[in-house]
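B., you asked whether I could sanity-check this one before it goes into the benchmark set. Here's the sequence:
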Amino acid sequence: MIILNEIGNKAHSVCLDFCTHMLTDVKGPLVGAELGIAYGGGVEEIGKLWKGRGTIYGFDTFEGHPKQLAKSKDDFEATCMDLWYKNFPQEMLSYEYQRAQLDKQGLDNVILKKGLINQHSCDDIPDLNYCLLDLDMYTSMVVAYEAIKNKMLPGSYLFFHDVVPATHLPMIHDWFFDVVLVDGRWELVGTNEDNFIAGVRRIK
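And here's what the prediction gave me:
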């Protein structure tokens, strides 16, 4: 399975490092979620890492980028996945393909959830130790954040892809710094413009 965030900017390595530390830093079962998994390689790797210790949920349309949710059909929000789809077979995006690949490896601790993200997408997940939001567009990121923010446990880590640099996806960048970071429940772990990623830790 393919990890776009590793091929494109090594962002997956940042998340995987934190997920590795959780194996010793967190007692008991681990629960994580990635919202926007594209070709599924990220949750596959975490599933391998956490096998016997935790569950990772992967959310996606499994049908491609939902361009209709972008602010306009010509905006980068709408077109940002086009090059990836030219480089990798789109049939590898499907739920059936990814589930089969995971099943071949015995990764029953990876749970795939199909559909557009909405405020109830994570209702059946009580708590989270780790989460990545990587939905490439403002509207989807806001909805996803609202769906998971109250589920993040104290000490848990929440990562946001594409919020830096400011020129990349400006609406998402401004929302992260002007809304998320002033919420009061997070401390900033760090931002890395080379990786296009920012991370926060739940403090209360």
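One thing to flag: The domain at 4-202 is CATH 3.40.50.150 (Rossmann fold). Otherwise nothing jumped out at me.
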